[in-house]
User: Which sequence fits this backbone?
């Protein structure tokens, strides 16, 4: 099997990770593109002593560490201003700690594999994750709108959100209900499923909300690869169903950390 065939199934998840790490579709995709260009330029240098997914993330981290990537400017001034604010806030939490948390909680790597990716020992990774979680605990609380039509999942998400110290503005099960709840009680964060109870779309519900005001958004889906195709504008923050509590916690922390709109385009 070719190297391209080996890494292709893992690209949607690398793109998800890159966006969560940078807080931007544009920036995340720029780093992924640079990693792929490095692989094409020197395929013999691709790590073959580990599985393809680990090797792919290793190449990405080499690019990330060098930070020698041309970042395309955001399309509007407001987004650019938020990017600048986010970069100013990077000093508030050690970059390695964010990487360790996202690699383990969101991407599901073991401490050993995460250590390989960021050149740290498993013990160091555990300490870095603890550091990131401590920073999350100090994060300012916000008000959260949940758009989810499955009652058990909605209750689970609500429990996680409340445990993090945030309030719930409401739980919507349809597009119209989500729009109405957002208009009546403006949230500081939205967690949205893709498919809703009446056949409406969580994506459309979020677009309705973002048409009224800016708010960070995290999408929840069983099929993230369907949204990360590169063929259309896509969300920045994605959680895969079934999810772990730690995954939701990490995604919420990143979305609020960057305080940017996970909109499309």
Assistant:
């Amino acid at each position: 099997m070719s190297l391209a065939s080996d890494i292709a199934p893992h690209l949607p998840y690398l793109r998800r990770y890159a966006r969560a790490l940078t807080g931007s579709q544009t920036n995340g995709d720029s780093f992924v593109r640079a990693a792929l260009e490095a692989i094409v330029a020197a395929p013999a240098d691709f790590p073959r002593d580990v599985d393809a997914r680990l090797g792919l993330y290793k190449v990405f981290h080499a690019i990330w560490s060098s930070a020698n990537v041309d970042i395309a400017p955001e399309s509007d001034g407001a987004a650019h201003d938020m990017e600048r604010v986010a970069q100013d806030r990077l000093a508030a939490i050690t970059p390695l700690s964010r990487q360790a948390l996202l690699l383990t909680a969101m991407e599901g790597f073991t401490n050993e594999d995460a250590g390989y990716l960021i050149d740290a020992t498993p013990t160091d990774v555990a300490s870095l994750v603890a550091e990131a979680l401590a920073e999350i605990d100090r994060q300012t609380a916000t008000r959260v709108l949940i758009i989810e039509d499955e009652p058990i999942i909605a209750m689970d998400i609500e429990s996680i959100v409340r445990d993090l110290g945030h309030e719930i503005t409401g739980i919507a099960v349809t597009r119209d209900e989500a729009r109405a709840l957002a208009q009546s009680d403006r949230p500081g964060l939205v967690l949205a499923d893709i498919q809703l109870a009446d056949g409406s779309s969580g994506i459309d519900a979020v677009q309705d909300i973002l048409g009224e005001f800016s708010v960070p958004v995290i999408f929840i889906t069983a099929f993230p690869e369907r949204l990360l195709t590169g063929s259309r504008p896509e969300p920045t923050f994605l959680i895969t169903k079934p999810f772990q509590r730690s995954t939701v916690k990490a995604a919420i922390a990143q979305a609020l950390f960057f305080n940017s709109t996970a909109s499309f385009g």
